[in-house]
């Protein structure tokens, strides 16, 4: 079901990066699947039609929404019928997540091999050589750089990895099911 994937935090984050209102628009659309009009969104989003169109155009650039352009033979004007492509959205988020997983796993390996240092605020993690060059003072906040707790860091990375893997399992199941129907 499309509503299962819309509420995943990685889907929400992905849409937020495209436009601050994209997630809201698609959540509304998900509950009104038969809708094809852009005007429909002006009221629930409380914005002008130009704003709605700008969000739809951004989503169209990614292939998440598509449209049919229909010419009115009398007036010569065009109307647009909009469609949501949940399959495409799922694929994009899945691939973005796979990329994140790869980076997190590389990080996990890196933190296993090197001693890392950071300040109380965790502005940034530095390897020993870099921390030594800064005389163990954070270049961002000037606080003392201390040894990063290896066990805690691994736990933190593992939690992030598990959360993303869980969401990708849901996305992959959704993709399998929608591909079966087509
Ligand atoms: Zn700092």
Give a quick precis of the structure:
59% of the residues lie in helices and 12% in strands. The protein is mainly alpha-helical and 182 residues long. The longest helix is centred in the C-terminal third of the chain and has 32 residues, at 150-181.
H/E element order? HHHHHEEHEEHEH
Number of self-contained structural domains: 2
Total beta-strand segments: 5
Shape: elongated
Ligand catalogue:
zinc ion
Fraction of helical residues: 55-70%
From the alpha carbons, calculate the radius of gyration and give it in angstroms: 23 Å
**What is the makeup of the main sheet?**
3 strands, antiparallel
Per DSSP, the total helix count is 8
Characterization of the model:
The model has no long low-confidence stretch (mean pLDDT 94). Helix content is 59%, strand content 12%. The strands form two sheets. The protein has a three-stranded antiparallel sheet. The protein has two domains: 2-84, Arc Repressor Mutant, subunit A, CATH 1.10.10; 89-181, no CATH class. The chain contains eight helices and five strands. The chain has helices at residues 2-6, 9-18, 22-30, 42-45, 49-61, 86-113, 128-133, 150-181, and strands at residues 65-71, 78-84, 116-118, 126-127, 146-147. It is elongated, with a radius of gyration of 23 Å.
Q: Which secondary structure elements does this structure contain, and how are they paired or packed?
A:
Elements (H helix, E strand, L loop, with lengths): L1 H5 L2 H10 L3 H9 L11 H4 L3 H13 L3 E7 L6 E7 L1 H28 L2 E3 L7 E2 H6 L12 E2 L2 H32 L1
The chain binds zinc ion (ZN).
């Amino acid at each position: 079901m499309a509503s299962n994937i819309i509420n995943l935090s990685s889907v929400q984050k992905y849409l937020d990066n495209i436009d601050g209102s994209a997630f809201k628009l698609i959540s509304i659309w998900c509950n009104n699947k038969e809708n094809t009009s852009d005007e429909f969104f002006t009221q629930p989003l409380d914005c002008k039609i130009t704003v709605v169109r700008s969000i739809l155009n951004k989503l169209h650039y990614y292939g998440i929404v598509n449209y049919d352009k229909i010419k009115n033979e009398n007036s010569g004007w065009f109307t647009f019928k909009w469609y949501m492509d949940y399959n495409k959205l799922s694929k994009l988020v899945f691939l973005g997540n796979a990329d994140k997983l790869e980076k997190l796993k590389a990080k996990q390996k890196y933190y296993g091999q090197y001693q890392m240092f950071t300040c109380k605020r965790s502005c940034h993690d530095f390897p020993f050589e870099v921390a030594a060059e800064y005389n163990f003072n954070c270049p961002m906040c000037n606080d003392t750089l201390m040894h990063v707790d290896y066990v805690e860091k691994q736990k933190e990375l593992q939690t992030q990895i598990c959360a993303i893997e869980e969401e990708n399992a849901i996305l992959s199941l959704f993709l399998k099911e929608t591909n079966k129907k087509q």
